[in-house]
Amino acid sequence: MARAVYDVVIRGGAECRPPTGGFYVYPDFEPLRETLAGKSVVGGESLQRHLLDNCGIAVLAGVHFGDAARALRFRTATSILYGATRAEQQAALDAPDPLAVGHVRAALDAIEAGFAELAGP
Questions:
Q1: In this model, does residue 21 exceed pLDDT 90?
Q2: pLDDT digit string, tens, across residues 42-56
Q3: pTM for the whole structure
Q4: Number of domain units in the chain
Q5: Structural contact between residues 16 and 6, judged by C-beta atoms closer than 8 angstroms
Q6: Could you list the residue ranges that cross the membrane (predicted)?
Q7: pLDDT at 37
Q8: pLDDT tens for residues 55-91?
Q9: Exposed (0-12), middle (13-18) or buried (19+): which is 53, by Cβ within 10 Å?
Q10: How far apart are CA 116 and CA 118, in angstroms?
Q11: Mean pLDDT of 16-27
């Protein structure tokens, strides 16, 4: 899951270290600063608000983890993508390819659409 979200944020124009075993992704959208400024996104908290209000994506701004307020970084847990119910979580865990499970694929597609909106005009 973390690798799939990592791939999405990289395609969305962010810089990000590849995940190595955890379930958090910590992308940096500094390369999109000019584009984001046109959307009134100028720091971590406005990035957090924009993603939630306009894209339905919940993240925690990097400022909550010690980043400067101006930093365009956030942290997000990818474990929630496994599902909202025990049955969904188990289906994802049991699947040979969890990324192909319907609710997981839908969540990843929504995240990708949100980051495409973020990076677009």
A1: no
A2: 999 999 999 999 999
A3: 0.89
A4: 1
A5: yes
A6: none
A7: 96
A8: 999 999 999 999 999 999 999 989 889 999 999 999 9
A9: exposed
A10: 5
A11: 91
CATH classification of the domain holding 26: 3.90.1150.10
> Alpha-carbon distance 34 to 43, whole Å?
12
- Stretch 10-31: mean pLDDT, rounded? 93
Q: What is the pLDDT of residue 22?
A: 85
Residue 116: both structure tokens together: 């495409």
Beta partners for residue 1, in sequence order: none
Q: SS in 3 state form for the chain? A: CHHHHHHHHHHCCCECCCCCCCCEECCECHHHHHHHHCCCCCCHHHHHHHHHHHHCCCCEEHHHHCCCCCCCEEEEECHHHHCCCHHHHHHHHHCCCHHHCHHHHHHHHHHHHHHHHHHCC
Closest by CA to 8, choosing from 69, 66, 81, 64, is 81
Specify whether the CB–CB gap between 73 and 26 falls below 8 A. Answer: yes
